[in-house]
Amino acid sequence: MAPAYADPRSHIIYDDAKSYFARSRERYDIIISEPSNPWVAGTASLFTEEFYANVLPYLEDDGLFVQWVHTYEFDSRLLASITLAARTAFKDFAIYAANNSDLVLVARKTGALGRAGDTVFTFPAIARRLAEVGFRNADDLERQRVIGRELTNQIFFFDGIQANSDYYPFVDINAARARFKRQNADALSVLADAPVPMVEMLEKRAPATRAPSSMQPRVAVRRMTQIAQAQATFEHITESSEGGGPGRVAARPSAHMGVVRMLFEDCARAERAPEVWDHVVALASELNTTLAPSQLDALWQRFERSPCLAKLPPHYTTWLALFRAVGNRDGARMAHLADQLLELADKSERQLDYLVVASATGHLASGSRAGALAVLKESAQSLPVSVLSQQWYRLLRQLAGIPPDAVRGNNSGHPPRAVQAGG
Predict the structure, then answer these.
(1) Are 169 and 126 in contact (CB under 8 A)?
(2) pTM reported for the whole predicted model
(3) What one-character-per-residue DSSP string does 203-245 give?
(4) How far is Cα 107 from Cα 189, in angstroms, rounded to an integer?
(5) Residue 67: beta bridge partners?
(6) What is the distance between the alpha carbons of residues 76 and 69, in angstroms, rounded to a whole number?
(7) Separation CA 362–CA 193 (nearest Å)
(8) pLDDT tier at 120, thresholds 50, 70, 90
């Protein structure tokens, strides 16, 4: 924050934000709002339909509005009310993770928001400060994107929630209760834990094209740490390294990497594969949701060319082809391969979970709602409620047209049976 106050071009005005905008005639390229916590008296009015509408006349036509929203001591219904309010004013917006407990809403007055660009990194002073917190280019910024405007309407389907407003002050009335109960509005942030790049594919966004850094971030942000670990794993497997800067420490590679090397480099006995395949699935989940498709394609091809693969049953070749399809964000091929594997028996819960999410995501991303509907309906009888209650399943069911209360789950304590996808 110091440069903003020290820069001689800055004009600092001490005033109430709503009052200032009510009488000012200035128009801005960017307006940044960093209110206090909504439970502080009067602050919730800065997250209302009226405030957002009042901001619009002071933005240039292609202007951006940026606002901090916290998730700690908050709840998902309050966050839903805020996003509904933002929808009434802004043509497009996206929500980014600032850290483990803060979100940043980036909204555009007119037109599509688009991706972050590299222009800001051409300013040396800004680039240095961004590098200090782990951002070297626009791809690093985009990896912190959580969700866009349209999917927020699908993820938040709470009955009775309306847009936060001066006339319906839902946040003002309920924020203190969420603080007292120490709740957490994690409905959006947990989507990054889905085993495939689900949100990116459903939003039809272009993936990152550049490799992330494998250096441990200076700030303890969970998502950035996961990304650095994935890159460190890639470098260990491919025996490449980006090198680090002064005082930088490389992240540790995934704990699952040793098992993968045992199978595809040491040629472990074929009977070991079923015992340890969950580790391969877990590694695929970690890498395919964080690295660039070009990296992933090279990585999975490396395993497909391994002479060890010929010693394993044929369906493991299909598994690797599925991981490669996920890495390439090829929805139709994902759905096809996942549906093939779903027909096989003797899958662990983790494997069944991965296949259902990969199949449903692939079907939806390639325009087959019927295919997603079939596999999700069948999985409701095979996976436990604890798995089906994950937020990404809720989103997939909503997009497939399954009512939120239609989850039964397998609570028998018996292993999941095979699932066959329809249509």
Answers:
(1) no
(2) 0.90
(3) TTPPPP-S----BPPSS--HHHHHHHHHHHHHHHHHT------
(4) 18
(5) 33, 105
(6) 12
(7) 17
(8) very high
